[in-house]
Amino acid sequence: EKAETLASIAGGIQTIFWNPPNGRNPDMDAMVADVLLVETPLSEDDPFCLFYTAAVDGRPRGAVLSHGNIICGNMETAATMGLTSQDAYLNMLPMFHMTGMNLALSVMHVGGKNVVIEKFDANLVLLETEREQVSVWGSFPPMLARLTEAATKGDRNLSSLRHVLGLDSPDNIRSFEEQTGAVFWILYGQTETSGLVSLSPAMERPGSAGRVGLLTTVRLVDDAGKDVVPGEVGEITVRGPLVFQGFWNQPELSEKIFSGGWHHTGDIGRLDEDGFLWFKGRKPEKELIQPGGYNVYPAEVEAVVIEHPDVREVSVIGVPDPKFGEGIKAVCVLSEGSTLTPEDLMAFVASRIARYKKPRYVEFVDALPKKADGAIDREQVKTVHDR
């Protein structure tokens, strides 16, 4: 099926290169044998990659990250975590996830080793960690709980493991550290900040998002763009060499998000007297759901749900989820006489959107609460249906 799909969309390609087990393709070797590799001049401001972020308004946006952004992100991570050429990172986070790329390149930056597995499997992770003397992991829910359980039941030697970077609950982190002896590093960041704004051992200040990084400056501002009083909650704005260049082919949006020369994250937080950042949520117009560490904006999911002919109205919210930390829930008003089931709606959405963006929970209601202007009152929906 995959071959047929590839053939239909790439019919003009005459040659497909396949990497055999030894990692080298003889045809490729022959092609490059007489090729003179010309050095290409690059500057730190030249684009390195486009990372497509979750869509606030239903349309994904390409964040332009420069070579300088990526290198500074590598340096920040390596210096803060104390990475060396003796470290080995196990790639169990996807490379299209900013944290996955940051960890892989940070370890390479200091001369360390990357170990690649096809997909996450707790027992395989423990096996490769022992065999390859892996010292660095990246983890988002529900990975850590599964790894802790597997480590408890198994007899793998995990003494090489030094660092785990990601997100999870303080209880899960504490259990993991007690089981393995490794240090779990908590962070706050966005694709637009090369993945990092703050980073610290989680147990240094449990519940916080870590200490603001050496290469990053953070301001907390109110709705008027004025600094809030120290200790008060405000929007997290960021500047520094890790901050991206803007959104690909969206100059107006880029100008708006860099209002006043600062990147406006749309996140709400508080800074304590020691420089630790405490994440408090999203601004209402930029609400974000994070199932398993992925970023999902409600508007993107709502745009797909409402395509079903039996759905008249929908509000998508984040709810507590025992497996992924946060789950996606669609609260819907159906057309009169509809026989649509939650399972049918989930299958409909799954066929049109990435798997991790599909609602895990669906609830049908007679009506959704509205504001004075007729818009759906999302906060009221969350209050009533946040379970």
Give an overview of the whole structure.
It is built from eleven helices and 16 strands. With 387 residues, it is an alpha/beta fold. The mean pLDDT is 90.
Secondary structure elements and pairings:
Elements: H1 2-9, H2 26-32, E1 47-53, E2 61-66, H3 67-81, E3 88-91, H4 98-109, E4 113-116, H5 122-132, E5 136-139, H6 143-153, E6 163-166, H7 170-180, E7 183-188, E8 198-201, E9 217-221, E10 234-239, E11 246-247, H8 251-257, E12 263-271, E13 277-282, H9 298-305, E14 311-321, E15 325-334, H10 342-350, E16 361-364, H11 378-385
Parallel strand pairs: 3-4, 5-6, 6-7, 15-16
Antiparallel strand pairs: 1-2, 2-11, 7-8, 9-10, 10-12, 12-13, 14-15
Summarize the structure.
Helix content is 28%, strand content 24%. The protein has 387 residues and is of the alpha/beta class. A four-stranded mixed beta sheet has the order 5-6-7-8, with helices on both faces. The protein has a four-stranded antiparallel beta sheet with strand order 9-10-12-13, with no helix packed on it. The chain has a three-stranded antiparallel beta sheet with strand order 1-2-11.
